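User: Fold this; tokens only.

Assistant: Input:
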Amino acid sequence: MPMDGFTLSFLTKELRDQLVGGRIERVNQPERDSILLLIRSQGGNHKLLLSANANQPRAQLTAQTYENPAEPPMFCMLLRKHLQGARLNSLCQPNGDRVLRLTLDCIGELGDPVQKTLVLEMMGRYSNLTLIDENNTVIDSIHHVNSEMSRVRILLPGVRFEMPPAQDKLIPGAMTAQALAARLAVLTCPLDKGLIECVAGMAGICAREACAQIGADRSAPCNTLDTGLMAQALLRYFDGLEARFAPVLLTDEAGLALDFFPFPYLTYDPALQKRYPTLSETMDAFYLGRDLHIRMQQRSAGLLKHIKTNIARLEKKKAMMLETLRESEKAEQNRIYGELLTANLYRIPKGATSVEVINYYDEALAPVNIELSTQLSPAKNAQAYYKKYRKAKGAEQYAREQLATLESELELLENAMEDLDKCSTSVDLAEIRYLLVENGFLRPDPTTRKHKKLQEGKPYRFVAKDGTEILVGKNPIQNDRLTLHARGNETWLHVQGIPGSHVIVRTEQEPTPDTLLYGAKLAAYYSKGRNHPSQPVDYTRRKYVKKAAGSPPGFVTYTNSQTILVGLTPEELVAISHSAAEC
């Protein structure tokens, strides 16, 4: 759910209660549009995430771990300079809008106390995070906005900061029943649409819930209602919101997170709304996995585009080779025509355009008409057909060799594209990039030292019900490392006949049936056969898995295996995606 003003009002109070008076200990910038502040408050450390991401702008306390870049961005360095050691003086939501202002008591360059403000605007593609000084001058923004980008507001260092244009709406905590009734009385739209028009911070989902809470028909036109009574009921609803505060996570029947609310919503099934102690914890549960997936999508966009371009190029070349093979089927006919012409040279007059001869390669000895070039003698016409034959056979051999290579390269690229979805860190992406460079699909990064050792990515880690650890490789390099470093009697699993991750059950004892089944389901989940209703998975002891010298990364042979058939339910798909962790 996008962060609307209604939900932000609850979050603002939660953050104010936990953070005001706290000291900023550390500033990090894990993403180009997100800042993470470590704030020491009330005897504990709290991680405050301020995200100006266009798809999911938000502010929240988080327990998630974020990977920081090797070199902190300039905006991060600037915030460290101004805010390190600052105390959070106040935190507010101006005019009930999707804006959060953090006022901070800082120490100036001369050691004097100064006040600075961080303003987070959560407005879709217009989201931004701006640091301003005590004179209301922009120090810097996470996204610069110049006059060409906006004629309304400019956000550049040194300009005067202006709040987003105010909307002519009523603020829930400050409006009167008379003012709301007057606004609604002149509207002809349905009641829920009218609330969006009149009340600040109301998104569609919140407006529909407000109608349900007061027992009103949300589809009824505003001007047909008793707006006085309706406004009084709505005012009582807004006044009682603080007492309703009980954050919930909305899921589907499979357990996949769909939305989060500051209190249980009547417009959704109560059985699908899971309670959490705080709104920030609810948001952590909602964004867990989703946030990581979006970040990895953004980081891997360039690699994905390059892989798709190479796949398209190879598919085109493959089609040309297949066409060459189809054309080569005519090669034998050209050889026969050459033989027949050679045997009948005495019968062919010079300058003839064709000749009909008996085809003694045909069991029925049927006559065949052979076209001739008038520019060539009969003997040279025969040689021309031999030449076509030899050329076609050479092209056929080349095409078959190329097809074998193309199939191998396409498989590598398609697997790399699938492995991009398994990436959870920049190290995982670096391993896939390394594979592409080593196979000639990508040029080496000129800024990277030639002999720099590749940092090792970590496999996924799962724990079975009996406590047994299970490891899953994310790409061919990790598959090799995981399998070759495993102990001889540990159980190794892999889907049968299709690309997928190597899975190691880390016990040298015979795994329990439940643990073995769980390992097989992980192997099926992290493969191309994830959605197959009955996917065969092979398993054997690690000592029976061999890797031939010079074989591609991730390619192994194995013996003494057994097979188990598994299928994944929607609930299991969600459970696996949520329980994946790194070693």
